[in-house]
């Protein structure tokens, strides 16, 4: 069942190149510079988007906000569903509410979408489980096609959600004439490479095993990232806490000096998403700030980056890709790091304590 893997989680991490092929499948139309999603929804009939989800799916939503705003210029709010459903959101008929969910059964997400619908919103589900409750509640469904996910910690569904949000943003951007054909073609070409790039990261698992060996006794971890890599940092911290039970926090790196920097000492490993992109230089200064206070930096950096090795104690190189797509490649070492640490600590990786795969009660 586990296909020769000791845990479902590891099997699912290794399925990710195939999952990406499946999610992107016949949807990318490189020649037209568009994405075919088969949605009934008219992207010109909306003025704003509300993205709602829980946990890992919520981080995919946060990533989606960056892309929808960058590529389609649609004002996008992002909320955890448990807040959204009770905050009396301002919604009208030109609002599109997007629910993201692997199971399609998460109660807060389901109720959040009902709330938006009752207020007149258009609704779209970005969902893995066919025929699940949320798919029956929304007008349009964009299936992520990740296949069944058994491990309680979500991995392959996450990268499928990220790629679905990227496709959605490109599609909306094209229809709204914000995104030019050539720019879209460039992005689609990069998306096609994703399965192979994730495969390359998986081949470097021994490097992660080495890092896990080195850091698994830490009491706390900090994860930092900026822009689209901020959600990656949060997802990395969530993976680590849920399966290893090590306390981990994440911050958008620019927030460091507003408080969390006080935590830094020689006992704190700090994982920094430092791939090349518009905020790369700023992230380097964040790394310097950590180093100056004795913190141990594990940098997730673009392959061939010579500078970063001088600053960070440890570097995990990830293949270069368009900066907006970097999270899809960069989250993989963080999944593996959480996995390897949890195994070293003897945790029950597939069934972490106190957690259920789908949260159908409030
Ligand atoms: C984390 C995890 C949870 C889920 C969350 C939402 O690894 O699995 O945080 O992401 O409970 O679940 P879905 O996507 O089924 O709505």
TrEMBL record:
Residue numbers annotated as active site: 357
Subunit relationships: Homodimer.
Coiled coil: none
Domain SIS: 39-178, 211-352
EC numbers on record: 2.6.1.16
Keywords: Aminotransferase, Cytoplasm, Glutamine amidotransferase, Repeat, Transferase
EC supergroup of this enzyme: transferase
Iron recorded as keyword: no
Subcellular localization, as worded in the UniProt entry: Cytoplasm
Keyword Cytoplasm: yes
Protein name from the UniProt record: Glutamine--fructose-6-phosphate aminotransferase [isomerizing]
A GO MF label: glutamine-fructose-6-phosphate transaminase (isomerizing) activity
Broad class of the protein's primary localization: cytoplasm
Residues included from the entire protein: 243 to 604 of 604
Function, as annotated: Catalyzes the first step in hexosamine metabolism, converting fructose-6P into glucosamine-6P using glutamine as a nitrogen source.
Catalytic activity: D-fructose 6-phosphate + L-glutamine = D-glucosamine 6-phosphate + L-glutamate
Lineage summary: Bacteria, Thermotogati, Deinococcota, Deinococci, Thermales
Origin: domain of life: Bacteria
């Amino acid at each position: 069942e586990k296909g020769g893997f000791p845990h479902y989680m590891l099997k699912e991490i290794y399925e990710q190149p195939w999952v990406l092929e499946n999610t992107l499948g016949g949807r990318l139309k490189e020649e037209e510079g568009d994405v075919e999603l088969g949605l009934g929804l008219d992207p010109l009939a909306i003025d704003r988007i509300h993205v709602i989800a829980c946990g890992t799916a919520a981080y995919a939503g946060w990533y989606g906000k960056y892309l929808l705003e960058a590529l389609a210029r649609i004002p996008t709010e992002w909320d955890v569903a448990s807040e959204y459903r009770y905050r009396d959101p301002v919604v009208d008929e030109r609002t599109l509410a997007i629910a993201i969910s692997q199971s399609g059964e998460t109660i807060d997400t389901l109720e959040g979408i009902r709330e938006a619908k009752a207020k007149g919103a258009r609704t779209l589900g970005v969902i893995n489980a066919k025929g699940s409750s949320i798919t029956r509640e929304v007008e349009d469904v964009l299936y992520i096609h990740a296949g069944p996910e058994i491990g309680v910690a979500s991995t392959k569904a996450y990268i499928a959600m990220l790629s679905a949000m990227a496709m959605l943003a490109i599609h909306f951007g094209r229809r709204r004439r914000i995104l030019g054909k050539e720019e879209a073609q460039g992005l689609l070409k990069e998306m096609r490479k994703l399965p192979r790039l994730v495969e390359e990261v998986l081949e470097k698992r021994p490097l992660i095993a080495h890092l896990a060996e080195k850091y698994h006794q830490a009491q706390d971890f900090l994860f930092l990232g900026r822009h689209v890599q901020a959600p990656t940092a949060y997802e990395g911290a969530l993976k680590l806490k849920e399966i290893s039970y090590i306390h981990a926090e994440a911050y958008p790196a620019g927030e460091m000096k507003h408080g969390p920097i006080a935590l830094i000492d020689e006992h704190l490993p700090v994982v920094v998403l430092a791939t090349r992109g518009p905020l790369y230089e700023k992230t380097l200064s964040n790394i310097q700030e950590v180093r100056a206070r004795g913190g141990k930096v594990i940098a997730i950096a673009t392959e061939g980056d010579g500078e970063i090795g001088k600053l960070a104690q440890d570097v995990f190189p990830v293949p270069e890709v368009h900066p907006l797509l970097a999270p899809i490649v960069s989250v993989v070492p963080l999944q593996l790091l959480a996995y390897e640490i949890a195994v070293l600590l003897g945790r029950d990786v597939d069934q972490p304590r106190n957690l259920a795969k789908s949260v159908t009660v409030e």
